[in-house]
Structures are given as C-alpha cells and as structure tokens.
C-alpha cells in the first residue's frame, strides 16, 4: 500500500514542476520570437515594445504582441504583392506599347510614343513620391506658411486647367496660417487634389482651392469641384492604395496612388484626409495641426 501511494504522491509533486518547465520553455521560445519580430518589423503603432521590455510583459500581453505583429506582416505582404502587380502590369503596359511602336518599321509619327511614355513616367513619379512620403520622418517637419504652399500648387496647375477649359479659383485667407510641415510633400498633396478635380470636373466649370481653420490649432485645406454625390462605399475606397475612381479612359489613365498619397501625407503631418459631397459639389480635404496667425519667432 505504501509504495503505490508514495509513487502517486511523488508524481503529484513532480507534475507541477514538469508543467512549470514546459511553460518556461514555451516562454523562452516566445521571447526569442518576439525579439526576432521586433528586429524585422518596421516602426509602427503595433511595434512599440523594446526588446528589453519584453520580459516585463505578461503571457497574454506577449500573445497579443505576436498577433499584432502577424497582422503587420500580413499588411506588408499585401503591400508587396500590390506593388509587384502595379509594376508588372500598370507600369509595364505603356512601356511595352512604346517598345512595340519602336519595333514597328512603319512608324509614321514619333509623337505616338509620347502618351504611353508620359503615362509610364507619371506612374514612376507617383510611386517614388509615395515611397518618400511613407518613409518621411515627422521629426523633420519645419515651420511653413500653408497659404504659400497652396498658391504655388495652384500656379503649377494653372496651365493644365486652362487647357482643359476649367479655371482654378483661390479662396485663401490674406492672413498667414503657419503649420509644421514638409513643403514639397504638402505641395504635391495639393497638386494631387487639383489634378483629381481636373480629371472629374465638367468642362467650363470652376475648381476651388481653399484654406480655413475649423477650430483652434487645426487647419484644413481643400479642393472642390462640381460633381455627383459619391456613394458611401466608394468614399471609403478612394483613399486606398491603387484605388481608381472614374470610368473609361479617365480611370485607365490614373495610377491609383494620388489620393492614397494625399492620405499618407496627411497622416505623416498628424492629420487626416477625407471627402464630402453636398449641393452638387465634391470637396476633398486635408486636416492637420496648426493655425498660428503670426509668424513663429524663428521667422520674425
């Protein structure tokens, strides 16, 4: 009777020790996986835990960290696949068309090569601009006057608007509004909004670009044109990567990166982007922190 009871008692005492060792082994393996994930993932809202802090996390917190890292990896993989699809199809198609024309011995007008080559150049520029926006460090933002940025963007698009029988109207305040930003990115952001309006606004209509301050320490610039009300589900898709609005030739000529670039720049500046429809008007806007009326001390 004693021997079996002793063995059973010893087994009961050994089981917690055996379970503890298994948990410690699993915990050590999880720590190693977390360190590897931390080393490979880019900086993001889901990857803020430093390797030295991993040991202070509870087991459930570590599981949540791994799940967040897996979601980030899935998003990165989806972005990679989208980029490859863009390069292999959208960018390749106009270049292949130009090469086919060059190989055609009966090419009568070299000007026929310009449209596909310009389209390929536009796509490459959009892709590079987006890459810069996504890698931009918000710590490098500098004080600038936002009205001057928008005036320059309107100047840049003046000739194109006139060519398309449209006119850009500026509704910009006389007093300066100062923000912390990157001049080149914000200018390209405004140009993209104007370009989007020029593609969709009817001929012989006005396109407005404006700047206001809806509340203290917030500024909003916008571009507005005539157009139908957009369905709610389409609004959500417009700012996604490689999303293309419009139909027919207008849709085919777009890169699908313009409005995604706008949203990326807005977020890099601590803001957001959106679209509103009312009374036959469509307004795309970017909201961001700022709004000093007078120049900062460094400019005085």
UniProtKB/TrEMBL annotation:
<keyword id="KW-1133">Transmembrane helix</keyword>
<keyword id="KW-0472">Membrane</keyword>
<keyword id="KW-0812">Transmembrane</keyword>
<keyword id="KW-0808">Transferase</keyword>
<keyword id="KW-0418">Kinase</keyword>
<dbReference type="GO" id="GO:0000155">
    <property type="term" value="F:phosphorelay sensor kinase activity"/>
</dbReference>
<dbReference type="InterPro" id="IPR050428">
    <property type="entry name" value="TCS_sensor_his_kinase"/>
</dbReference>
<dbReference type="InterPro" id="IPR036097">
    <property type="entry name" value="HisK_dim/P_sf"/>
</dbReference>
<dbReference type="Pfam" id="PF02518">
    <property type="entry name" value="HATPase_c"/>
</dbReference>
<protein>
    <recommendedName>
        <fullName>histidine kinase</fullName>
        <ecNumber>2.7.13.3</ecNumber>
    </recommendedName>
</protein>
<dbReference type="InterPro" id="IPR003594">
    <property type="entry name" value="HATPase_dom"/>
</dbReference>
<keyword id="KW-0597">Phosphoprotein</keyword>
<dbReference type="InterPro" id="IPR005467">
    <property type="entry name" value="His_kinase_dom"/>
</dbReference>
<dbReference type="InterPro" id="IPR036890">
    <property type="entry name" value="HATPase_C_sf"/>
</dbReference>
<feature type="domain" description="Histidine kinase">
    <location>
        <begin position="86"/>
        <end position="292"/>
    </location>
</feature>
């Amino acid at each position: 009777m004693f021997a079996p009871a002793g063995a059973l008692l010893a087994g009961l005492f050994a089981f917690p020790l055996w379970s503890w060792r298994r948990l410690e082994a699993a915990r050590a393996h999880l720590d190693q996986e977390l360190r590897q994930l931390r080393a490979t993932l880019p900086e993001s809202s889901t990857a803020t835990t430093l390797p030295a802090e991993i040991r202070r996390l509870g087991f459930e917190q570590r599981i949540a960290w791994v799940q967040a890292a897996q979601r980030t990896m899935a998003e990165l993989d989806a972005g990679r696949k989208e980029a490859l699809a863009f390069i292999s199809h959208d960018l390749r198609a106009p270049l292949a068309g130009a090469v086919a024309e060059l190989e055609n011995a009966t090419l009568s007008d070299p000007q026929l090569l310009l449209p596909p080559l310009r389209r390929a150049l536009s796509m490459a520029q959009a892709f590079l601009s987006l890459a810069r926006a996504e890698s931009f460090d918000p710590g490098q933002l500098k004080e600038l006057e936002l009205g001057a940025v928008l005036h320059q963007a309107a100047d840049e698009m003046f000739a194109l608007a006139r060519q398309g029988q449209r006119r850009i109207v500026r509704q910009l305040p006389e007093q300066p509004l100062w923000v912390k930003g990157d001049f080149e990115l914000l200018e390209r952001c405004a140009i993209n909004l104007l370009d989007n309006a020029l593609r969709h606004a009817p001929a012989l209509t006005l396109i407005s670009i404006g700047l206001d301050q809806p509340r203290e320490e917030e500024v909003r610039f916008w571009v507005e044109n005539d157009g139908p009300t957009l369905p709610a589900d389409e609004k959500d898709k417009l700012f996604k990567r490689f999303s293309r609005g419009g139909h027919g030739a207008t849709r085919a000529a777009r890169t699908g990166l313009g409005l995604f670039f706008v949203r990326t720049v807005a977020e890099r500046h601590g803001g957001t982007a959106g679209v509103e429809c009312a009374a036959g008007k469509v307004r795309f806007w970017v909201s961001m922190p700022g709004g000093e009326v007078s120049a900062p001390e460094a400019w005085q």
